[in-house]
């Protein structure tokens, strides 16, 4: 049999095994096992031969079976802000549910609360983790040099890491969350269409503009308004830092200084405090108000007409996608793109 015929014969194997790989590459099954598991001690030309055989035979590794054989288990930690409101509570609830959903895959998830206003403490916590303690970490924190460097050190210690909801430029390929620029542009389109050609100002409220998701939402919002709704003037972002007294003070001052406010955009994930303040200040009923994320408070506000629209991402999908992505990094297999794409959804009073 010629070499070409031999290769054609190899390609006809329906479910190639490690034994088939070893035969095709001319190596032992032990060597194939070392290559598949990324162990050291195999020459580069041998690794290349095994990888060529994998491609030619169409070998797909049964990761679950391999993990079961070596009792592989996964412990993932979600590093979440210690300060938060109902959206964060929804995330925590979905993580707790995921422990039941993924138990059969030997996956367990813990939650550690971090101070998202103190990047040094976040870096210290991440530096304390070892591969004996955790398999991977999903990190919800603002992008800072300290957090970036700590993530790089995690990866050097063979701990899977990915940004969760709050993006980090270092790990753009692996982060879990919506396209925040598109989310901001979606909010702008809804608000702009509601203005019906009226001339006026738009108030933008955030917890903090230091987070990348807030900056990207604001950028997408500005681009859409400026390009398609020239009669609207966007005011500088108001930062509440989650403080109710500060929120009331700066929102009241802005409304007093700008009597032409006809739209309000709450771009942070936690909208309860600013929306309560707006209700207290008796903002005119025809002022269009739009916010992010589905929580018990925003649902009620939408149903009662105190909020006109929500741009949301599904909390359960976020958590499940993070777990699958972390497992994929550990197993050296990328999870399917479409399945992990977090959709931007629009909620109105009529489609709750």
Radius of gyration using CA atoms only = 25 Å
Multimerization status: single chain
| Average pLDDT metric | 87
Classify the beta-strand content into a percent band: 15-25%
Description:
The protein is α/β, with parallel strands linked by helices and 352 residues long. It is built from 15 helices and eleven strands. It has helices at residues 3-11, 18-25, 29-36, 44-57, 63-69, 86-101, 119-127, 145-156, 180-195, 212-228, 244-257, 272-280, 296-303, 315-330, 337-340; strands at 74-81, 107-114, 136-139, 160-163, 200-206, 232-234, 238-239, 261-266, 288-292, 309-312, 345-347. The strands form two sheets. Strands 5, 6, 7, 8, 9, 10 and 11 form a seven-stranded mixed beta sheet that branches. Strand 9 (288-292), helix 13 and strand 10 form a beta-alpha-beta unit. Helix 2 crosses helix 3, helix 6 (86-101) packs across helix 14 (315-330) and helix 7 packs parallel to helix 8. The longest helix is centred in the middle third of the chain and has 17 residues, at 212-228. Mean pLDDT is 87; it is low at 1-5 and 7-11.
Give a nutshell description of this structure.
Helices cover 47% and strands 15% of the residues.
Topology:
Elements: H1 3-11, H2 18-25, H3 29-36, H4 44-57, H5 63-69, E1 74-81, H6 86-101, E2 107-114, H7 119-127, E3 136-139, H8 145-156, E4 160-163, H9 180-195, E5 200-206, H10 212-228, E6 232-234, E7 238-239, H11 244-257, E8 261-266, H12 272-280, E9 288-292, H13 296-303, E10 309-312, H14 315-330, H15 337-340, E11 345-347
Parallel strand pairs: 1-2, 1-3, 3-4, 5-6, 5-7, 5-8, 8-9, 9-10
Antiparallel strand pairs: 10-11
